[in-house]
Amino acid sequence: MGNVIPFELGAIAVRADVPPHMDDYGRILLIGAFSDLVQLRDSATNEYSRKQADAIVKQIGRVLARYEPEGAA
């Protein structure tokens, strides 16, 4: 299957010998989705929707921070 990532929680293993990495295209796609979600959160009309979107924004933010290039802070 090549580079397919399994999404079954039991099938996912974290390897300590392989540093976290993401290609540039994946990073651009994730940043674009993050930006769209932030705009959606900021324009939400009710508090429940805003809190739901904010939780997802924070999760994606942690993913982006994990794969941030060295020295880019």
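Next protein, fold it too.
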Amino acid sequence: MTLLNVLIDFTRTGRIGPLKCGMSLAEAEDLRGPGRPHPAHIMKGPDIDGYPYSWSGLQLVVTQRAVSGIWINLWPGSTAKLPPLVLPDSESFEATVLRKDLVTALNTASCHHEVNPVLTFGEQSSIITRPAEVCAVFSLPGRDHHVPHRDRHYLDVMHKHTAWHR
């Protein structure tokens, strides 16, 4: 399985393997092991909402001790890590994904997507997939990104959120 396969599966289903919005943090930790909590959890306690637990490049946002968001963070031009549950048989992977390559893969997989106008501005662009509502955010490479094409948009983050009601 490649990173692109994982990303396409996420855009189509809104899930990363067995991880999904709405599951309890305890269920996620049973699957992944304890995550690294955001410092706000450490300072304020486990009941603080809206802060992520991290497993390498994977983050789960937690609200009322349940997963309310899933994020995959990528740094173009670098090598990154995702947990084996997300990207099996891979200690690390090339984190450089061109916007055009992801869009081509989405089209090939018949995954409907459209421009996300809320996150498309300046040197940043974004798409959202339907019906899973996974958002991909792209930007021109930063000074510290070692990429071959400085004038093309690269994937920075892919995320999904769920509406949360008390």
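About the second fold: Strands lie at 36-37, 51-55, 58-63, 66-73, 79-80, 93-94, 112-115, 124-130, 135-139, 154-161.
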